[in-house]
Amino acid sequence: MSRLQQTYGLTEEQREIVAAVRAFVDREILPVATELEHADEYPQDIVDGMRDLGLFGLMIGTEYGGLGESLLTYALAVEELSRGWMSVSGIVNTHFIVAWMLTHHGTEEQRARYLPRMATGEIRGAFSMSEPGCGSDVAAIRTRAARDGDDYVITGQKMWLTNGGTANLVATLVRTDPDAGHKGMTTFLVDKTPGFGEVAPGLTVPGKIDKMGYKGVDTTELVFDGYRIPAAQILGGAPGRGFYQMMDGIEVGRVNVAARGCGVARRAYELAVAYARRRETFGKPIAQHQAVLFRLAEMATKVEAAHQMMVMAARRKDGGDRNDLEAGMAKYLASEYCKEVVEDSFRIHGGYGYSREYEIERLYREAPMLLIGEGTADIQKMIIGRRLLEG
């Protein structure tokens, strides 16, 4: 197993960061993940440990108190976190996307205000595009922001906010010009109090959405009812750029989802190998039966292929190139392979895989989220196909 998911060409510092995260996962996450997941309990002790490791500032520039690391380093850290418990990676993912958007699209005043405190985890980020009536069709959003003097007044409902309750900063995409299509969309930096209920005048976070998996992390709605926000809170200072800003964030987010798929698949494979070595039928471990051996070989190949695709997508973005093709491919491949590897591990476990006492049961419920997060498989194929036809 040690030969899987090797990443060549890393610096010594990158290797040390990944090794530190892996040790943290083995020590602090794996022993408690299933218990916390079954209880749908927010992993506060784990979050505190991630703050101590500096993970909330991993990609924030050193001038703002972060570690200034690459997307690849971050993706490898997410891969390790997801191997322990995918929900934990979700806690840092939306935070990371907001920090990325601020770094690349925010004004200097906005970066100075938010990034130092995001690097320490004092400010925790969430981002919001989806609505009850639209997910992949981002251009169909209905939440409106109307200009009123030096402010905007926002009215509408957003959906599927990861960290919607615990975050105190939400990058929110709304429509400021109803007649301008995607050029009439604007991203606002919404400050709020952590928690549920009315978290600011005119802004409500209802309770957590009850989900099949991906528990522990809070997923919520966000309801605006005459919420007033200064124009200075527009990301980048000017309206009409929100669609592009969000798509840039989603592009790196897709690398993150690919990394999650790699981590979950790796854990499912580890569990399958361990179980196949100790479970005996017909007088020998089932790992020695050809059918199981072939299944393990197929699983390992998928784990490795997804990892290498994810690494390529991250490195392309780090090189300053457009990576929507590679990110779409990585997200598509890793999420589909993750589902298949988890199911194969479930099959190897036999009836015990259906028991809540076994970790694979949790992974079996978590893997489907990756099929829809940051764009469904069909959306990824549309992106891939269109980019290929561009030549």
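Second entry:
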Amino acid sequence: MSAVAGPAPGALLGAPLAAALAAATEDRIVYDLAGIEERHDTLRRELPGVEVRFAMKACPLDEVLTALARRGAGADAAGPGEVEQALRAGVPVARIHYGNTVKSDRNIADAHRLGIRTFATDSVQDVAALAVHAPGARVFCRVATAGTGAVWGLSDKFGCSPDDAVRVMEHARDAGLVPAGLSVHVGSQQMTGEAWHAAVEDLGEVLRRLDRRGIRVDHVNLGGGLPALGYRDRRGTPLDPPLDKIFAVIREGTDELRRIHGGPLDFVIEPGRHLVADHGAIRAHVARLTERRGADGERRHWLYLSCGKFNGLYEMDGLQYRLVFPTHSGGPTVRAVVAGPTCDSDDAYSHEEELVPVPAALASGDPVWILSSGAYATSYTTVGFNGFAPLPHTWADRAGEGRRR
């Protein structure tokens, strides 16, 4: 985590969020819904003709789903529970797909009963189950990627080789399913354009081989991976993704895949953190700033916050979230390990990396704002580990007032 002292973090925090955080007297996560909508609209302008299906797991809040649905977005659902939520929030069923390659027979049957007709797959075993429990469904096969260049590579659990993708799609056709598409995921918080270039090369190879077998898909799902803009890495260095280059590579890639395919080809993309991370911030407070000597003989400062890995900051082992201490401007600082409040040693930033400069005068109860924390803060959380409840959430409107939910 990286500290930003003073009440005016400027470009790191928009005015609606800043006003809502300043008005908050209790811990909560605040979202700028209009900012999320604007990020969606910018994405559509950058990638014209690419359908957006929000990766629900990044921020499964009804208000976010409804707002994005009103702007034409669909939903990438990972199971029947997310399908039901998306439908309740007003997402048309035709714009929802089952994007998880891991699903039981019951999962498939329940989703099919709810009206889902498009399913991700990556194995012949899954195809066989789909043929029984979702007869006639459309399937798209996920092609594995290396995940190189991403903060979280996602390279093992999902996806198959190009060779297997061809085999899976042939099995789908032979089983009475519709082999409708291909997909990739280049890794979460992908920091390079090269990752999408490599994925396009693999997709192009599979398209050519499918065409020779008489299988003509109608769409390509470009998956998730579009980065948030306000993160720092484990050592506190800003993660500054080349977003313009990434968009350019994707646009060039869609043109190339259409050329290879030689016919109409639709595209889908599944942003999650890119839409919500930078438009959410947590208002927490200082539990204690301490100093002690550890078993290794080193003396360290520890900053304990009221929010940690189990109630809003699950990704603190891979990131340094930016911290703002609005009641401290200037003054001496100390370098500290930042940790959450629970009685669990995992609830701390990895202090083998860089320590975080924080105001030396911090006292218990002082507010702290945790920036760019809108992704996964409401989903990667326990129901009350050690008695620390999940954070409530509020909405910052453009008049700067928070609306509680």
